[in-house]
Amino acid sequence: MYKEIIDGKKPELDKSIEHFREELGQLRTGRASATMVEGLMIDYYGSKSPLKQVASIAVPEPRIIVISPWDKDNLVNIEKAIRESQLNLNPNNDGQIIRINVPALTEERRRDLVKILNHKAEEARVAIRKHREAAWDEIQKAEKDGLMGEDDKFAGKDELQKVIDELNKKVEEIRTEKEKEILTV
Questions:
Q1: pLDDT digits over 8-33, tens only?
Q2: What is the pLDDT of residues 144-184, one digit of tens each?
Q3: What distance in Å separates the CA atoms of residue 184 and residue 123, rounded to the nearest whole number?
Q4: Which of 116, 134, 163, 159 is nearest to 14 (CA)?
Q5: How many Cβ atoms sit within 10 Å of the Cβ of residue 102?
Q6: CA angle 18–23–28, rounded 5-degree value
């Protein structure tokens, strides 16, 4: 019984990890990356759309992002969204494409990014803990309702903790990898 409860929570737990990865993709390191800008919301004919749905994004060189909108009328809206984002990037609009030069990070900015990274990692761990608590509550309720015995309840708790430990380990691996990427010149 507890296995079904834990298996039912795994998709939600995996979403927490995926969300963490997406959040980290938006953290600016010293290198250009399409993920830095692809989620920016662009005003597209009166509605908001992610940049990746209205333009192609390329990284031809380590410090340059090139954005080619499918409709050239959107160049101004894309440029405005980049300027208003918290990425501190300066887009260059030549009437056909937008070029973004990604400047090298200062040591102070790197330390700030590591703090943000650690905060996002903690948010991911909190989300995982919330899912663990929900699963544990379901296991306890199943035991109270007579659907499983006390031994199964504690076996479920141990199994659940193994899953959570594995996910926390994955969060830490992702965090460490991103920190190395940020601190590497």
A1: 888 999 999 999 988 887 776 667 77
A2: 998 888 898 889 899 999 999 999 999 999 999 988 888 87
A3: 24
A4: 163
A5: 21
A6: 135
Spatial distance between the Cα atoms of 46 and 69, rounded to a whole number of angstroms = 16
| Contact call for residues 100 and 89 (beta carbons, < 8 A) | yes
Tokens of 106: 């200062």
Rounded to 5°, the CA angle 126-136-23 comes to: 25
Q: What is the phi-psi region of residue 103: left when phi exceeds 0, alpha when psi lies from -120 to 50, beta otherwise?
A: beta
Q: Are residues 114 and 183 in contact, defined by beta-carbon separation less than 8 angstroms?
A: yes
3-class SS shares of the chain: helix, strand, coil, % to 5: 60, 15, 25
- Cα distance between the two ends of the chain: 51
Rounded Cα distance between 181 and 163, Å, is 27
8 Å CB contact between 75 and 45: no
Q: Which amino acid is at 56?
A: S
DSSP character at residue 105:
P
Among candidates 165, 153, 176, 177, which has minimal Cα distance to 1?
A: 153
Q: Are 69 and 78 in contact (CB under 8 A)?
A: yes
Q: Which residue has the tokens 């918290």?
A: 86
Supply the pTM of this predicted model. 0.69
Cα angle 22, 10, 153 (rounded to 5 degrees) comes to 145
